[in-house]
Specification:
The protein is an alpha/beta fold. The chain is built from 14 helices and 14 strands. α5 links the parallel β7 and β8. It is globular, with a radius of gyration of 24 Å. The two termini are 37 Å apart.
Length: 396
């Protein structure tokens, strides 16, 4: 997958943090070898997080995030600091840029403490080393102005990244060479014109990497596809919104699951999603449900998050439920008002941000599930859709 084709959720996120005028944006520009951020002697030039995709060996495609100074002041400054802290929820490694002529301050130490609290590996870059004659045993002395040790900083950052996702597959471990897997992709008003959505693309690629044979069809042609195939496929994977039709077409003897359920496993929260789905039966009149999406897109008239799921929740429970939604990088800082969170598969979010949201919900005592798991639960087929995951099946 090329740099431009790699989705943001699959890139390692590297966040640059520092006080105003520590030269943070200059270091970012030197690190990327591009003019990513505006540089000025005026404090607070960077007002919002700025992102830039690049290639960093041996990591491959990464996402660079330049943040506002975390010592900003005033009402607007407080908002900038809040956004900077939000970035911490999605970075895989942090670079703390310190003014090497002044050394670490109390504000820098506070930031290091935050890295520790969130278990984020970090590297300290002491900038302006061309103006200071000091050694820094706990970091890398760099000069953004002269490019000194920028390559060393890149290497240090690259070797600081750690991930729990190594070896994790979307579904390639569920099929072997020569296995046929049928993928059901409804084409309706919500389907993007001329392309497949990311989970569908990733599923196809992972099956091909496993040597399996993916067969793609619409739900309207599913019965005909199975008939013409002439034998039972290894697995049927469907868009969760088509569960109602697909479950009646696919024989009980053929394993059935959904793209959304696969993404929950791939992002590391399927177990949480399965146990959290039971909270649907505990919803009452006035219960508040947050439906969260990791991406932002133009919503169609029958959008899954704002129309279909709320409609199905109210129909299933028979209750007057208050539904709230959020999308993109926005996520509430207070989850206590909610009785349930139903999240998308998280394909556009990196692993760390999905993990943060899941753990934040757990710490707040709020059940957390996802689209596909919730839809399977309300359709009465959750056990069936988990048959390919025996360890998860034990949870229900």
């Amino acid at each position: 997958m090329s740099l431009n084709a790699t989705p943001s959720g699959e890139r390692t996120h590297i966040g640059f943090f520092g006080r105003r005028n520590a030269g943070k944006s200059s270091v970012v520009n030197a690190f990327t070898d591009q003019q990513v951020s505006v540089v000025s002697d005026v404090k607070g030039t960077t007002t919002d997080p700025v992102t830039k995709a690049m290639e960093l060996l041996p990591l491959g495609p990464v996402m660079i995030i330049d943040t506002p100074g975390f010592d900003d002041e005033g009402a607007l400054g407080e908002e900038r600091v809040r956004r900077t802290r939000q970035v911490l929820n999605r970075v895989d490694v942090a670079v703390l840029v310190v003014d090497g002529t002044a050394g670490k301050t109390a504000a820098d130490e506070e930031m290091i403490s935050l890295f520790g609290q969130k278990n984020i590996p970090y590297v300290i870059a002491y900038n302006k080393s061309d103006l200071a004659d000091f050694s820094y045993p706990d970091g890398v002395a760099v000069s953004a102005l002269k490019g000194t040790n920028i390559r060393l900083l890149k290497e240090t950052v690259a070797h600081s990244v750690r991930s729990d996702a190594d070896g994790r597959r979307v579904c390639g471990d569920l099929a072997e060479t020569g296995d046929f897997v049928v993928l059901v992709v409804p084409i309706d008003k919500a389907a993007p014109k001329g392309r497949l959505i990311l989970p569908q693309q990733q599923t196809i690629r992972d099956l091909l990497d496993a040597g399996a044979v993916p067969l793609v069809c619409r739900d309207e042609e599913l019965a005909l596809t199975l008939e013409k195939l002439g034998f039972a496929p290894k697995l049927v994977i469907t868009d969760s919104q088509a569960f109602g039709r697909v479950k009646d077409i696919v024989p009980e003897s053929v394993p059935l699951t959904s793209f959304s359920i696969l993404m929950a496993r791939y992002k590391g929260f399927l177990e949480t999603a399965v146990t959290g789905a039971a909270a649907i039966d505990r919803l009452r009149d006035g219960s508040r449900v947050l439906i969260a999406e990791g991406c932002t897109h133009h919503r169609q008239c029958d959008d899954i998050g704002t129309v279909k799921l709320p409609r199905m929740l109210r129909r299933y429970t028979g209750k007057e439920i208050a539904i709230e939604t959020c999308s993109g990088k926005g996520f509430p800082e207070d989850l206590s008002p909610y009785d349930l969170i139903i999240h998308c598969g998280g394909c556009m979010l990196n692993e760390r941000e999905v993990t943060y949201r899941r753990k934040f919900a757990a710490d707040s005592g709020v059940p957390f599930t996802n689209y596909g798991t919730a839809l399977a639960y309300m359709q009465g087929i959750l056990r069936r859709t988990l048959s390919v995951f025996p360890d998860i099946l034990k949870l229900i």
